[in-house]
Amino acid sequence: MIEVSWKQVRAFRLARSLERSDGIVETARRLGGVHAQVMSCAEVALAARVDGVGVADVREALWERRKLVKTWAMRGTLHLLPADELALWAGALRTRSYLWRTAAWTRYFGITVEEVEALVAAIGDSLDGKGLTREELGIEVGKQAGPRAQELMSSGWGTLLKPVAMEGGLVFGPNRGRNVAFVNPREWIGPFEPLPSDEAMAEVVRRWLRVYGPGSHEDLGRWWGVTPGRVRKLLEGLGDELIEVSIEGRPGYALAADAKALEGANAGREARLLAGFDPYVVGFFPREGLVQPEHLARVSRAAGWISPVVVVGGEIVGVWKHAVRKAVMEITVEPFGKLAAARLREVRGDAERLATALGATPSVTVA
């Protein structure tokens, strides 16, 4: 067992999260996907981690080159994933399929398990490589599975589409005007078969530990979006690949290969600006190790909203917001306490990096 402090853990996770990558796709691969409930935040999070890249390059990789895909993943939330790894993620996400077969889930939506399975099949069969809007997809499903299926499709959209996505049968296509569209990934990016779930999930756990470790099965459960008991064996099943870690008395695991990096981690005191829903913050459990309790509500807000944040040494010391007007990114920083002059200079430098990703020039105000 090794013993480390939260300061070391923050330094380790921040370094792994912000490590410069060769490109957009490799960054998404290393991070284990990028949270995309708010698409603009995902675009900035990726672009800001790759030199010379803007949000337009992220959109091109997603919609034109089809090197990224947008789909529902861990925690039932939207993510950007490498297209060439959809087989890995589909195999791992099948471990969540029990969720929509439980009595509580089916009772809540007034649907039977048999109807869920029929809907999953009908939705997958209805999709093509060109894309269907929600309304079009509902009509096609009704043709295949009858009026009851079309009725079910008229409400609870995301919930009823998630099982299909997590089986590898659906990803987002380019919007049609203001309408969201969906495509069959096997026609959109090419044929694939989901990997065996045990094999896929073991690799996902390794990647989680490399960037968001060390952690416990409770932390992994929260990140994956299931009860801790469902991932305990998956985590401990890595066996000799793991080393036990005590974080100021809190038990967890890290990859044995990361032990030296973890013990030697030192984030310094540089200030950084991270976008809303940034992977570093979204993947950081427990949040008490990231931000002082009295400020947590300003970071992790109502309805699961994660604010853009200011970090120093990996610890959140403030939040920020922005608006783009006439090619100027107006950034307002709200520190939780006084920031030293050196930290303010770093904030302004980081603001330039973020503004460049948006094709704008920065203007920073400290509230």
Explain what the structure shows.
This protein has helices spanning 6-18, 24-30, 39-47, 55-64, 86-93, 103-109, 113-126, 134-145, 147-153, 157-166, 185-188, 197-212, 217-224, 229-236, 259-263, 279-282, 296-299, 341-357; strands at residues 2-4, 34-35, 68-72, 78-82, 132-133, 171-176, 179-183, 242-247, 250-255, 271-274, 309-312, 315-325, 328-335, 361-366. The protein has a domain at 271-366. It is globular and about 65 Å long. The relative contact order is 0.14. The chain contains 18 helices and 14 strands. Helix 5 crosses helix 12, helix 7 packs across helix 8 (134-145) and helix 8 runs antiparallel to helix 9 (147-153). The mean pLDDT is 94. The strands form 4 sheets. The chain has a 5-stranded mixed sheet. A 3-stranded mixed sheet has the order 1-8-9. Strand 3 (68-72) and strand 4 (78-82) form a beta hairpin. The longest helix has 17 residues, at 341-357. With 367 residues, it is an alpha+beta fold.
Describe the SSE topology:
Layout: E1 2-4, H1 6-18, H2 24-30, E2 34-35, H3 39-47, H4 55-64, E3 68-72, E4 78-82, H5 86-93, H6 103-109, H7 113-126, E5 132-133, H8 134-145, H9 147-153, H10 157-166, E6 171-176, E7 179-183, H11 185-188, H12 197-212, H13 217-224, H14 229-236, E8 242-247, E9 250-255, H15 259-263, E10 271-274, H16 279-282, H17 296-299, E11 309-312, E12 315-325, E13 328-335, H18 341-357, E14 361-366
Parallel strand pairs: 1-8, 13-14
Antiparallel strand pairs: 2-4, 3-4, 5-7, 6-7, 8-9, 10-11, 11-12, 12-13
Helix pairs in contact: 3-4, 5-12, 7-8, 7-10, 8-9, 13-14
